[in-house]
Design a protein that fits this description.
- With 457 residues, the protein is α/β, with parallel strands linked by helices.
- It folds into three domains: 97 residues, Rossmann fold; 194 residues, 3-Layer(aba) Sandwich (UDP-N-acetylmuramoyl-L-alanine:D-glutamate ligase), CATH 3.40.1190.10; 141 residues, Mur ligase, C-terminal domain (Protein-Tyrosine Phosphatase, Chain A, Alpha-Beta Complex).
- 33% of the residues lie in helices and 20% in strands.
- The protein is built from 17 helices and 20 strands.
- The chain has a nine-stranded mixed β-sheet with strand order 7-8-6-9-10-11-12-13-14. A six-stranded mixed β-sheet has the order 15-16-20-17-18-19. It has a five-stranded parallel β-sheet with strand order 3-2-1-4-5, with helices on both faces.
- Helix 6 packs across helix 11, helix 13 runs parallel beside helix 14 and helix 16 runs parallel beside helix 17.
- The protein is globular, with a radius of gyration of 23 Å.
- The mean pLDDT is 92.
C-alpha cells in the first residue's frame, strides 16, 4: 500500500467522518486511542474481548467488521504483531493501518520532540523534558514512557517530548516531528522484526529525512548502523560524541559538554557513566533545537535525578552501594556502564539473568575477565550461559533465583562490609521467566536488598 503522509491522513480523516475507526488491542495505548476517538466525537470499535467495551478478537469478527466502505482506519496497539490476522486482512482489503502515535500526532498542535534508540531512550526522554521545563512548564512527557500520547494529544499543550519504541514506529506514517533523536542501535527485538535491517528501518521512521527544518540528533556510528549517509539526508543533522568537531562535544577531561551555543558544566550532573553523558549531550542538542536558552539548560542539568531501574543507586550499607539497573534487558545496555567501571578502587558483585536474547556474550566475558568481581547468573540464563562464561568460571556462580544470589552475597557482606563494593542488578535479559516486567524485577531486588542488608549507614 502506498505510504500516506500525516497531512494527507488528516485530510482523509476529515472526509471520512461517518466511517468507523477500529482500535486493535486494549492495552494502555489502545485504550488511550479509543478514549481519544470518543472525545473527538467518534464511535470507535475496540477489538479486545477482555474489555467490557470490546468485541472478540476473532478472524470471523475481522471479516465482519473490516469493510473498506465502512472503515476509516484500523489503529494498532504497539504490542500487536504486524502479522496479526486483523492486520493481514486490513492490508488485503486496502484499509489504512496506523499506530496510536499516528492518531495522537494528527491531533496535537504543539511542538514535538521524538526520541528512540536501543538503550537510554527513557532516560534521554525524561532528561530532555526536564531541560525544557523552565520555558515550557506544561510540557508533556509520554509515548513509551509515562502516559500514552493519545491521553493528552487533544489538549492545548505547547510541547510534547515522546519516547518512541520500534514497536510504535514500525507501522507509523511519517510523523512530522520538530526534532528527533536515535541514540544508538544494537540487536534487540529481532524476534519481532525478523532482522537488524527491519529493526533499523523501524527506528528510521522517526526522522523527517527530507525536511531542512527538521533537526535529527545522533552519533556517527549510529547513522552508519542505520544504513544512512550524511550527504543523503536533507534534514539538519546534529552529532554528539568525543570529537571536538561534533555539535555536542563530550569533554570528559574538563567536565564539559560543548556545543555551538554554549559550554555546559557537567560537574553537578547526577547520573553515573559515560553512556549517561551521551544521553545528556543528545538532550542538550534537542533542547537547543527548540531554542531553550543555555542558562536554563545549565540550571536544569544540575537538578535532574534520573529514573527508577536505570542504574539507580538506592541504598548504602557500610562500604557497600546497591544499584538497581533492572531496565538493562540486553548486552548493549549492560556494556554501556560495565566497560567504564572503575575496578581499581571498587569491588563488583554483578547479578545477571532472566530470559536470554541469544546475544553474543564475548564482550561481557572479556570485560569481566579484567575486573575484580563476582558474578551471579540466575533464571533461565544459568543454563544458556554456562558455556559462554567458561573462561571466567572461577568468578561466576549459577543459581536458580535472585533470592539465592542475594543470600550468598549476604555471606560476603558479613565478612567484608567495610570494603568499597558495588552490588549491581544489571540482568542483560528479559524478565519474563520469573517476573511480570523489568519494574517488578527491580522492585523485588530493592525489597530483598533492604531486608537482607538492613544495617544501613
Amino acid at each position: 500500500m502506498e505510504e500516506v503522509s500525516q497531512l494527507e491522513f488528516n485530510e482523509n480523516s476529515m472526509e471520512k467522518t461517518n466511517l468507523k475507526s477500529i482500535v486493535l488491542g486494549g492495552g494502555i495505548s489502545g485504550k488511550a486511542a479509543f478514549d481519544l476517538l470518543v472525545r473527538l466525537g467518534e464511535t470507535p470499535i475496540l477489538v479486545d474481548a477482555k474489555d467490557p467495551q470490546g468485541v472478540a478478537d476473532t478472524e470471523e469478527k475481522a471479516r465482519e467488521l473490516l469493510i473498506p466502505e465502512a472503515t476509516k482506519s484500523i489503529i494498532k496497539s504497539p504490542g500487536i504483531s504486524p502479522k496479526h490476522p486483523w492486520l493481514v486482512l486490513a492490508r488485503e482489503r486496502g484499509i489504512l493501518i496506523q499506530s496510536e502515535i499516528d492518531l495522537a500526532r494528527s491531533c496535537f498542535s504543539g511542538r514535538i520532540i521524538g526520541i528512540t534508540g536501543t538503550d537510554g531512550k527513557s532516560t534521554t526522554t525524561a532528561l530532555t523534558h526536564h531541560l525544557t521545563l523552565i520555558d515550557y512548564p506544561k510540557a508533556q512527557l509520554g509515548g513509551n514512557i509515562g502516559r500514552a500520547f493519545s491521553e493528552f494529544a487533544d489538549k492545548d499543550y505547547k510541547l510534547a517530548v515522546v519516547e518512541l519504541s520500534s514497536y510504535q514506529l514500525e507501522d507509523s506514517l511519517p510523523l512530522d516531528l520538530d526534532s528527533s533523536a536515535i541514540l544508538n542501535l544494537a540487536p534487540d527485538h529481532l524476534e519481532r522484526h525478523g532482522s537488524m535491517e527491519n529493526y533499523a528501518f523501524a527506528k528510521r521512521r522517526i526522522i523527517k529525512e527530507n525536511d531542512p527544518q527538521h533537526i535529527f540528533v545522533s552519533k556517527l556510528e549510529t547513522i552508519y548502523k542505520l544504513n544512512l549517509k550524511l550527504d543523503q539526508l536533507n534534514c539538519e543533522v546534529k552529532l554528539f560524541g568525543t570529537d571536538p568537531k561534533h555539535d555536542a562535544f563530550i569533554d570528559i577531561e574538563n567536565l564539559l559538554i560543548q556545543t555551538k551555543q554554549a559550554s555546559y558544566s557537567i560537574q553537578k550532573f547526577s547520573l553515573e557513566g559515560f553512556h549517561n553523558l551521551e544521553n545528556l549531550a543528545a538532550s542538550i542538542l534537542l533542547a537547543e533545537s527548540i531554542e531553550i536558552p543555555s542558562a536554563h539548560i545549565q540550571t536544569q542539568i544540575e537538578t535532574f535525578q534520573g529514573l527508577a531501574h536505570r542504574f539507580e543507586k538506592f541504598m548504602r550499607s557500610f562500604g557497600w552501594t546497591f544499584v538497581n539497573d533492572s531496565k538493562s534487558t540486553n548486552v548493549h545496555s549492560l556494556m554501556a556502564w560495565l566497560q567504564n567501571f572503575e575496578s581499581q578502587t571498587t569491588n563488583l558483585i554483578l547479578l545477571m539473568g532472566g530470559r536470554t536474547k541469544s546475544e553474543d556474550m564475548t564482550p561481557v566475558v572479556a570485560c569481566l575477565k579484567n575486573l575484580t568481581c563476582q558474578v551471579y547468573v540466575y533464571g533461565e540464563a544459568r543454563t544458556h550461559w554456562r558455556k559462554d562464561f567458561n573462561l571466567i568460571r572461577e568468578k561466576v556462580n549459577f543459581v536458580e533465583s535472585m533470592e539465592e544470589a542475594l543470600v550468598s552475597v549476604k555471606n560476603i557482606w558479613s565478612k567484608s562490609k567495610q570494603e568499597n563494593t558495588w552490588v549491581v542488578l544489571s540482568p542483560a535479559c528479559a524478565s519474563f521467566d520469573q517476573f511480570k516486567n523489568f519494574e517488578d524485577r527491580g522492585l523485588h531486588f530493592k525489597e530483598l536488598s533492604q531486608i537482607l542488608f538492613s544495617a544501613v549507614e
